[in-house]
Amino acid sequence: MAFMEKLISHYNVLLKQYNDLIVNAFDDKDFFEYTENLFTAHSCGIEGNSFSVNDTRELNEKGLNAILHNKSLLEAFEILDHFKAYEFAFSNISQPLTESFIKELHSVLTFNTLKFTKNSEPGEYTTTDMAAGDTLFGDHKQNIALIPKLLEQTQLTMDKGELHPMLISAKFHYHFIYLHPFRDGNGRLGRLLSNFILAKKQHPLVIIRSEEKEKYIEALKASKRHRDTAPIETFFFETAIYRMTHEIAQKKNLTQNFFLKLKPTQENEEKKKLRVR
Q1: Eight-class DSSP state of 277
Q2: 6 vs 165, 211, 243, CA distance in Å?
Q3: Which of 83, 210, 232, 265 could form a disulfide with 45 if both were Cys (CB 3.0 to 4.6 A apart)?
Q4: What is the C-alpha to C-alpha distance for residues 111 and 51, in angstroms, rounded to an integer?
């Protein structure tokens, strides 16, 4: 069995366990909020936002009334905008991938932050060529012209149901990131849209942890170097497997530790006998 086939098989087995032990055991609203906080903190963290998961949860619960030390208002608005975009996307889960949808989603995602970026407008494509770090993204007009085709092909592939949802999500992510159609917010929007694709197929979100930023970027660059999306596909699968494995283990360990604390040890029982004598 080839490496990717093994990875897919491992993921599929784990997915059933994860749904049984985690997803189906939660109240839908509680699980939505848990995932929203986790995804928002890490996706914004990849872009340099300093909010921790706990900071993000507090902001979600209290809004700008939250007491957050050493945090900028711009960071808070970025998190709050991400909450709104997340909720907009998943309240429109039956919506097909179209230009109007991704533009509206981008508008929500950057509503309070893009105003600080020169020559930019929420929900509108860039009017200049783009670069990030050591990467040049090519002619912006040519890139933008390819967006409708990317959306159409991705939607068609989803509708056919022949390709694993994780592969669709990863392939889309790679192409969207390198087309880089907006002035800002492409990374956050790309991760949100990739998870929108997964959620449409009832798969859990791929939450790329902020501490995995370098591995994530390298997977994208490796895919570009080799003209093959296998590196980013592998990264997506491994990231999803890590999350499911970690959360399943966390639940089992907490449950086991609880009962271990309740169970009297032999030493404690012997001490009780001595006191009785």
Answers
A1: -
A2: 16, 26, 18
A3: 210
A4: 19
Q: Does domain 32-242 have CATH number 3.60.21.10?
A: no
Q: Which residue has the tokens 């009017």?
A: 127
| Alpha carbon separation from 146 to 107, 156, 188 (Å, rounded) | 20, 16, 20
Catalytic residue among 82, 140, 175, 180: 180
Neighbours of 193 (CB within 10 A): 22
d(CA 277, CA 266): 17
Question: Residue 131 in 3-state DSSP?
Answer: strand
- The half-sphere exposure of 95 on its side-chain side, counting CA atoms within 13 A, is 16
Which residues make up each annotated binding site for ATP? 184-191
Output the pLDDT for position 264: 57
Quick check: is 203 catalytic?
A: no
Print the SS3 string covering 44-78: HHHCCCCCCHHHHHHHHHHHHHCCCCCCCHHHHHH
**Burial of 246 per CB tally in 10 Å (0-12, 13-18, 19+):** exposed
Q: How far apart are CA 98 and CA 149, in angstroms?
A: 10
Quote the pTM value.
0.90
Cα torsion for 55, 61, 67, 73, to the nearest 10°? 70
DSSP-assigned letter for residue 124? S
For the chain, how far is it from start to end, CA to CA, in angstroms?
66
How large is the greatest C-alpha to C-alpha distance in the chain, in angstroms? 89
**113 in Cβ contact with 81 (< 8 Å):** yes
Any idea where the domains of the chain sit in the sequence?
Answer: 32-242
